[in-house]
């Protein structure tokens, strides 16, 4: 199961500038990061779930692309979100 509607709303409130602005880069990165953390917990019990592992790798690549775009366009916001989410970069 993916993130619930309440979890998504909480992430949008925490990282977004506006609760309805789910398209902001910072919000997208935070939502993808929460999905990644959910999947890593899933793999602790389901080690052989290779199809979901492929989805995890796609999410990591998507987050990497969004972070690269944010770094190019708004360096201060990039540094802030990497520090908040504790992403290695």
From TrEMBL:
Origin superkingdom: Bacteria
Cited CDD domains: Ribosomal_S15p_S13e (cd00353)
Entry keywords, A to Z: Ribonucleoprotein, Ribosomal protein, RNA-binding, rRNA-binding
Record-linked SMART domains: Ribosomal_S15
Gene3D superfamilies, A to Z: 6.10.250.3130, S15/NS1, RNA-binding
Gene Ontology CC entries for this record: cytosolic small ribosomal subunit
Annotated InterPro entries: Ribosomal_uS15 (IPR000589), Ribosomal_uS15_bac-type (IPR005290), uS15_NS1_RNA-bd_sf (IPR009068)
PROSITE patterns, sorted: RIBOSOMAL_S15
A GO molecular-function annotation: rRNA binding
Role this protein plays: Forms an intersubunit bridge (bridge B4) with the 23S rRNA of the 50S subunit in the ribosome.
Assembly and oligomerization: Part of the 30S ribosomal subunit. Forms a bridge to the 50S subunit in the 70S ribosome, contacting the 23S rRNA.
Record's protein name: Small ribosomal subunit protein uS15
Organism the protein comes from: uncultured spirochete
Designated gene of the protein: rpsO
């Amino acid at each position: 199961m993916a993130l619930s509607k309440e979890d998504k709303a909480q992430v949008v409130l925490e990282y977004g500038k506006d609760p309805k602005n789910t398209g902001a880069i910072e919000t997208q990165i935070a939502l993808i990061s929460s999905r990644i953390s959910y999947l890593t917990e899933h793999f602790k019990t389901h080690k052989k779930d290779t199809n979901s592992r492929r989805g995890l790798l796609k999410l990591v690549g998507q987050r990497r692309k969004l972070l690269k775009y944010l770094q190019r366009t708004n360096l201060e916001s990039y540094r802030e979100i990497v520090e908040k989410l504790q992403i290695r970069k």
